[in-house]
Write a structure and sequence with these properties.
five-stranded parallel beta sheet, 42% helix, globular
Length: 148
């Protein structure tokens, strides 16, 4: 049903709250998980002149996030792109033939998520979106702590 599931990540713990849901679906449907990190462009700097550290940092982040899923035998593809987050996510959907987008609902501050990206995706996407309810910022850390 869902061959490819895309999870947009901005590097924030809030965005990562979508991962358990995406992992569960990927496991059930034997889907490929596509983890997309969109870095917002540096004003007045062409992409060809971006410091290599930007892409390297994004790639390292995605590898760290993907590692536990790969160990559980899930197929994971990390993708780093530069540009407008909503536009780049939708481009990945088309280019990679994605069947579902899984992300945290709301536009809390964190990376690019404060830019109305969720609202844009919900209006412009031609594939279904699974919007996961995130935890309030003060509860997010407690939720992730197994001792609480």
């Amino acid at each position: 049903m869902y061959d490819r599931i895309l999870v947009p990540l901005d590097g924030s713990p809030e965005a990562e709250e979508a991962l358990p849901h995406a992992r569960s679906l990927a496991s059930r449907f034997r889907s490929e998980l596509i983890l997309v990190r969109v870095d917002v462009p540096i004003p007045n700097l062409p992409e060809s002149r971006y410091p290599p550290q930007i892409e390297s940092t994004a790639s390292t982040y995605l590898k760290r996030v993907a590692e536990p899923m790969i160990l559980k035998q899930l197929r994971v593809r990390p993708v780093v792109v530069f540009g407008d987050p909503a536009h780049e996510i939708l481009s990945c959907v088309d280019r990679l033939r994605v069947d579902l987008i899984v992300l945290v609902a709301g536009d809390r501050v964190g990376g690019w998520r404060g830019r109305g990206v969720v609202a844009q995706l919900s209006r412009r996407s031609h594939v279904p979106l699974l919007l996961v309810r995130g935890h309030p910022p003060d509860r997010a850390a407690a939720h992730l702590d197994p001792g609480s």
